[in-house]
Write a structure and sequence with these properties.
alpha+beta, Sulfate adenylyltransferase, two-stranded antiparallel ribbon, 5 helices, extended
Length: 194
C-alpha cells in the first residue's frame, strides 16, 4: 500500500486505520486495490519526490498493516467516524482533501463510489525462511512456512542439501553486499553513479 508522507506518519502513530480510493469498475482503474484481502498483511510505503525530479517514486517499506475489512462505499456515506479513522480532523476535511487529490466530487454530488480498506498496524514480525529447492532456481527465501525447509526434515548427512543451503546463504550475502554498495554509491555520488 502506497501512501503520502502525512498518511504514513498517521499510520505509524496509530491515527489512521482506514483508507479509501476511487473505485471505477467501467474504466478498470483501481483494480489492483480490489485485490486486498482481509487477514492479509501488506507493506506500507510512501511516495517520495527526489530533489530535481518531477516524478514521485516509492520509498522503502516502513511498516506492515493487516487488512481487517474491504468494502465499496459511496463517498456520500462517509461519516465523521470514517474521517477520524482516515486521519482527518472532520468529514469536511476528508472531502476537501478528496477533491484536491482526485479532482472529483462537485458540491452536493458526492455519490462517488470508493473502495474502503480498514486495517491495523501489523506488529507481528515477518519471518523469511530458506525455501525448498525448485528446479532451475537456487538460493530462494520465502515468507510461506509451507514452502520452507523444515529443519527436522533435513538430513544432516545429505551433502546435496548442505551444499545447496551454503550456496543459498552465499547468494543472499552477495545480494545484501551489492545493495549496501549501491546505496553507499548513490548516497555519495548521486543516483546516477550506481
Amino acid at each position: 500500500m502506497i501512501f503520502s508522507q502525512q498518511h504514513v506518519t498517521f499510520i505509524l502513530a496509530g491515527q489512521k486505520t482506514q483508507h479509501r480510493w476511487p473505485w471505477k469498475p467501467d474504466t478498470g482503474q483501481v483494480r489492483s486495490k480490489e485485490g486486498f484481502r482481509s487477514g492479509h498483511s501488506y507493506a506500507v510505503q510512501r511516495w517520495t519526490l527526489t530533489q530535481g525530479s518531477t516524478c514521485p517514486r516509492v520509498g522503502p517499506t516502513e511498516a506492515r498493516v493487516r487488512v481487517v475489512q474491504v468494502e465499496r462505499q459511496p463517498l456520500s456515506e462517509a461519516s465523521e467516524r470514517d474521517a477520524l479513522a482516515e486521519g482527518y480532523e472532520s468529514l469536511d476535511h476528508l472531502i476537501s482533501d478528496w477533491r484536491r487529490r482526485y479532482n472529483e466530487g462537485p458540491v452536493g454530488g458526492l455519490h462517488i463510489p470508493t473502495l474502503v480498506v480498514r486495517f491495523e498496524l501489523d506488529k507481528e514480525p515477518r519471518s523469511y525462511y530458506l525455501a525448498n529447492p525448485v528446479a532451475g532456481r537456487s538460493g530462494d527465501y520465502t515468507f510461506s512456512r509451507s514452502r520452507a525447509i523444515d529443519p527436522l526434515e533435513v538430513d544432516q548427512d545429505d551433502e546435496f542439501t548442505k551444499a545447496w543451503a551454503a550456496k543459498a546463504e552465499e547468494a543472499r550475502r552477495l545480494v545484501v553486499a551489492q545493495a549496501k554498495l549501491r546505496w553507499r554509491m548513490e548516497r555519495r555520488y548521486g543516483k546516477d553513479a550506481a
